[in-house]
Amino acid sequence: MWRELLPVGRAPGGGYRRHAWTDADAECRAWFREQAAARGLTHEVDRNGNQWAWLGSPEDGDAVVTGSHLDSVPDGGAFDGPLGVVSAFAALDELRARGARPARPLAVVNFGDEEGARFGPACVGSRLTTGRLTPEAARELRDADGVTLPRAMERAGYDPEAIGADPERLARVGAFVELHIEQGRRLVDAPDDRPVGVASAIWPHGRWRFDFHGEANHAGTTRLEDRRDPMLTYANTVLAARKKARLAGALATFGKVAVEPNGVNAIASLVRGWLDSRAADEATLAAVVAEIERAAVERGARDGVRVEVVRESFTPVVEFAHGLRDRIAARLGGAPLLPTGAGHDAGVLSAEVPTAMLYVRNPTGVSHSPAEIAEEDDCAAGVRALADTLEDLACP
Ligand code: HGY
Ligand code: MN
Ligand code: MN
Ligand code: MN
């Protein structure tokens, strides 16, 4: 199963480029359909393009759903997302091997566009489904080439007019459990040897676009004192972001930038920088972003550069339902509870249905990189833990 998926969307350098509604995404979706068919599961695609593979009938309600996403960040790793979907199918196989007889419908899900690598906001498939992202706002999204989300969906054979909240579908879900590779080192650095942990919380986090408006000019004839160079303001803002975040014990990253006209001998007219910021609580996060914005505007005033900030997405703090979380941790023999700064579809779903996450140990902690790895034994432990969880929840 894993081997068929491994080469899909992999760039020559080893990183994955499985971005929403691209050919690589279509290949991942075809793989999901094949896995469902091979297991006699009923495959369906919901109005937002999320894929569901059902064991039993969703109309019976109170389903136990598991899964994750198959898309990636630019040059992402092999495990972030796919490990959760592959483990979900493998856990169903394990239940069948155990002769378990589910009394509730089970489903494996692939949520579309979790990383937001192409259009910006994260968790588009799950946020549309829960109403956290409106269809109007989603239809406005466009990628770096100016292709709108609706156009990309149409090209992939999906109807962008159908997208929107799906409360009837969510009403049939009694619990959602997402298995994910841990993104960080809490398990590997822990004193005891635990290959699987249980999520306790997801930090609040968001994405802000900073537009630095300067004045295009000739790099070879414009005196330094006559320049209005947005790159200067942007560079100082990146430094300020690191300083403010460190002082507040938060995280702030300018990981994506666009420059216009982006010519080696032209002073930029516009620099667009995307800030990803996260903190253990929403007040700290709001304060850090406000300080970074203030630093940008103040520096811009000195450089003759106008700064505009737009919040593109925000995910409030997620405290996973203690009942489900503690039941799973106990079923797994006292698995450790782990907070994380990484966003997940489970974080989005948790506002609507009882939700939990299992983390599989990451030996280096590295993620969102081709260097992301997980040990085979730990992945197998993750499948067993997920099967134990599904059996406990669905098979009385
Ligand atoms: O950005 C995140 O935390 C997630 O991987 N989409
Ligand atoms: Mn990710
Ligand atoms: Mn992920
Ligand atoms: Mn994620």
List descriptors.
four-stranded antiparallel β-sheet, binds manganese (II) ion, 15 strands, 36% helix, nine-stranded mixed β-sheet, alpha/beta, globular, single chain, Aminopeptidase, 396 residues, binds (2S)-amino(hydroxy)ethanoic acid, 13 helices, Alpha-Beta Plaits
3D structure, described in words:
By secondary structure, this protein is an alpha/beta fold. The chain folds into 2 domains: 2-203 and 317-394, Zn peptidases (Aminopeptidase, 3-Layer(aba) Sandwich), CATH 3.40.630; 205-315, Alpha-Beta Plaits (2-Layer Sandwich). The protein is 36% helix and 23% strand. The protein has helices spanning 2-5, 23-38, 82-98, 124-130, 135-140, 149-155, 167-171, 186-189, 230-248, 282-303, 322-331, 345-349, 376-394; strands at 42-45, 51-55, 63-69, 106-111, 173-181, 196-202, 205-213, 217-218, 251-260, 266-267, 270-278, 306-315, 318-319, 337-340, 355-360. The strands form 3 sheets. Strands 1, 2, 3, 4, 5, 6, 13, 14 and 15 form a 9-stranded mixed β-sheet that branches. Helix 3 packs across helix 13 (376-394) and helix 9 (230-248) packs antiparallel against helix 10. The model has no long low-confidence stretch (mean pLDDT 96). Bound molecules: (2S)-amino(hydroxy)ethanoic acid (HGY) and manganese (II) ion (3 copies). One manganese (II) ion (MN) is lined by residues 114, 342-344.
In short:
By secondary structure, the protein is α/β, with parallel strands linked by helices.
Domain count, please report it: 2
- Give a short account of the largest sheet: 9 strands, mixed
The total count of strands amounts to: 15
| Weakly predicted, low-confidence segments | none
Ligand names:
(2S)-amino(hydroxy)ethanoic acid, manganese (II) ion
* Distance from first to last alpha carbon: 29 Å
Report the structural category.
Answer: alpha/beta
* Helical content class: 25-40%
Query: How many alpha or pi helices?
Result: 13
Rg calculated over all Cα atoms: 22 Å
* Average pLDDT figure: 96
Question: SSE order, as H and E?
Answer: HHEEEHEHHHHEHEEEHEEEHEEHEHEH
| CATH fold name of the largest domain | Aminopeptidase
Which CATH architecture of the largest domain? 3-Layer(aba) Sandwich
Top-tier CATH class of the largest domain: Alpha Beta
Binding site for Zn(2+) 1: 69, 80, 180
Cofactor: Zn(2+)
Pfam family, one: Peptidase_M20
GO molecular function: hydrolase activity, acting on carbon-nitrogen (but not peptide) bonds, in linear amidines; metal ion binding
